[in-house]
Backbone:
């Protein structure tokens, strides 16, 4: 069994208004050194596949077809063997 | 289609659709046409002439607006119907579903204000030569409400150029006097885009709700022109 941990974020070229709002809040806490706040989502999948390569391929397919909209989002993921 | 027969509207109902009955009411009672609901698990559109993907929050807007609904069984039929030239209109969440299904280009981002906006706005008719806007004049200002959290239309520069080139931008947000500017842009949409169609001109997506503004009692009857345009296009074809 493998576990994929996927992070989906808005593309760098797209303004992230949620990130901006949180950045302002962080600044109002006094942390003026913080910048470029981006908000994304994390998705976890458990995959019952024969190999890590297969789990990675499935994860990549699912990201492209469903989990990320490639017009506005980027994704990264890691795959670990869990048992 | 003969001039005397009624246009048959098929209104797709997803779990979480909430403007389906408004669309049904306008099609049946206001426009005096036929209409029926099509549950998202159905695998046939029957003999519908027009498919409406109504507004709402299909699948709770999980993942992204419209992202799950596009995998509903009925969507395969809707895509096939659209590819054969059938008339399809997606309103609000329906527009978002059309984008996710790839029937229209681009995406919807969160409103620039991060607020859910529910109010009357004005839109100008950029292209009246369509089966969705033929009852309007070029530059006519329509008063129709919006109700969405994700209506901030975005597409890459190439897509925008292509939309322009093929006159696919049908409606843009404007002031009450018809000026298209930032002040009249409720959600941050590129170029104030409120509604676009595909290149072939048979699939339209729009964020404003014509089905909520088709009777004077509701504050505006301008939405009726969009229903009337679709009916005319089918009756005359």
Residues:
């Amino acid at each position: 069994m493998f576990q994929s941990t996927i992070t989906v974020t808005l593309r760098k070229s797209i303004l992230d208004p949620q990130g901006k709002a949180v950045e302002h809040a962080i600044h109002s806490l006094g942390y003026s050194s913080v910048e470029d706040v981006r908000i994304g989502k994390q998705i976890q999948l458990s995959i019952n596949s024969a190999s890590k390569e297969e789990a990675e391929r499935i994860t990549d397919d699912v990201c492209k077809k469903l989990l990320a909209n490639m017009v506005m989002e980027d994704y990264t993921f890691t795959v670990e063997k869990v048992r | 289609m003969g001039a005397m027969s009624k246009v048959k509207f098929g209104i797709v109902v997803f779990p979480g659709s909430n403007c389906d009955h408004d669309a049904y009411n306008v099609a049946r009672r206001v426009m005096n046409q036929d209409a029926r609901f099509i549950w998202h698990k159905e695998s046939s559109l029957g003999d519908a002439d027009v498919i409406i993907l109504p507004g709402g929050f299909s699948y709770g807007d999980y993942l992204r607006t419209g992202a799950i609904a596009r995998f509903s069984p009925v969507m395969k039929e809707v895509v096939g119907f659209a590819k054969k030239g059938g008339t399809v209109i997606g309103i609000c969440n329906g527009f978002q579903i059309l984008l996710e299904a790839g029937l229209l280009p681009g995406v919807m981002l969160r409103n620039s204000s991060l607020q859910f906006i529910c109010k009357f706005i004005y839109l100008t008719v950029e292209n009246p030569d369509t089966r969705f806007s033929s009852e309007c004049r070029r530059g006519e200002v329509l008063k129709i409400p919006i109700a969405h959290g994700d209506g901030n239309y975005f597409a890459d520069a190439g897509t925008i150029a292509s939309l322009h080139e093929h006159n696919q931008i049908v409606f843009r947000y404007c002031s009450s006097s018809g000026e298209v500017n930032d002040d009249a842009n409720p959600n941050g949409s590129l170029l104030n885009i409120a509604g676009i169609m595909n290149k072939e001109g048979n699939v339209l997506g729009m964020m404003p709700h014509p089905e909520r503004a088709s009777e004077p009692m509701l504050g505006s009857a301008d939405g009726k022109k969009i229903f009337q345009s679709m009916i005319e296009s089918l009756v005359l074809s």
